[in-house]
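Example for tutorial group B:
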């Protein structure tokens, strides 16, 4: 209902004329746009192992940990975003845990537009702040397949021996996120953002080697800076979970506490000593005295 009124006539009261106003309703039409986000992580399960190494010892990306690749696809079924304002694809990347240790190390990002497949948009800030030497994509794919094959066999063992699950999410305060922003220039159809990263093995060995699993959450969203009123976005956020497990070979080595192994060794020595004692006394028990005849 409008707060204004329009003059529709005059009403005479005595010798005075008073303008009469009738209330009216103003309808405004919103400008909806319908970008949708589809996201996937490859692989969806990661495994950590190896030895604890400091940040200064890292020279190549393979020394960090298991590789992971995220893909975020933006599809627009509504008005062209470049006619509505400046559109951006935002990524909240959990780069460290609450105590400041590395969690998920970002290596590089590529944003490819369907209308301009040869043009790769630059996202800010620039990843790979440690300037690690990068590996070719095909080499990463081979390493990922080897990790998948090694990890599948021992997943049941890890579940059976451990009971605690941890979620690392910036919204929960269990992780700290770095905000990456990618401009969507002339975006009216679709765009694909690919992010390559590495799991920081040393942090997981120090902090999460005794838990069942660790779930790491990456979030993505679309924002539009526009002067158009009543502009709203639909389905403009998504989250990408990845589950991290301790490598099966490490789980077997750490699965039995040291004190159980020590008790087993001592019990074995005790049993061996009893057997030796019994065998040493047995010949004297079997000897009979010789009786003289006559």
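The residue assignment follows.
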């Amino acid at each position: 209902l409008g707060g204004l009124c329009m003059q529709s006539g005059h009403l005479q009261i005595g010798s005075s004329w008073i303008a009469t106003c009738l209330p009216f309703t103003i309808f405004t039409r919103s400008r909806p746009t319908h970008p949708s986000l589809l996201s996937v992580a490859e692989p969806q399960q990661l495994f950590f192992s190896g030895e604890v190494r400091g940040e200064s010892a890292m020279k190549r990306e393979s020394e960090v940990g298991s590789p992971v690749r995220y893909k975020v696809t933006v599809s627009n079924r509504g008005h062209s975003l470049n006619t509505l304002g400046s559109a951006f694809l935002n990524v909240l990347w959990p780069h460290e845990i609450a105590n400041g240790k590395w969690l998920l190390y970002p290596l590089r990002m590529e944003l490819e537009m369907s209308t301009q497949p040869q043009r790769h948009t630059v996202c800010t800030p620039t990843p790979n702040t440690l300037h690690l030497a990068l590996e070719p994509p095909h080499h990463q794919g081979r390493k990922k397949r080897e990790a998948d094959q090694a990890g599948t066999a021992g997943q049941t063992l890890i579940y059976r021996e451990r009971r605690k699950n941890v979620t690392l999410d910036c919204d929960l305060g269990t992780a700290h996120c770095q905000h990456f922003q990618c401009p969507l220039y002339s975006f009216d159809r679709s765009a694909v953002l690919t992010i390559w990263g590495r799991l920081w093995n040393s942090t997981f060995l120090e902090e999460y080697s005794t838990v069942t699993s660790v779930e790491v959450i990456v979030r993505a969203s679309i924002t539009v800076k526009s002067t158009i009123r009543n502009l709203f976005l639909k389905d403009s956020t998504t989250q990408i979970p990845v589950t991290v497990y301790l490598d099966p070979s490490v789980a077997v080595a750490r699965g039995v506490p040291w004190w159980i192994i020590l008790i087993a060794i001592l019990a074995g020595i005790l049993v061996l000593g009893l057997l030796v004692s019994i065998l040493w006394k047995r010949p004297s028990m079997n000897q009979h005295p010789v009786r003289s005849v006559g």
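Residues 1-14, 16-30, 145-161 have pLDDT under 50 and may be disordered. Compare this with the pattern of hydrophobic and polar residues in the output above.
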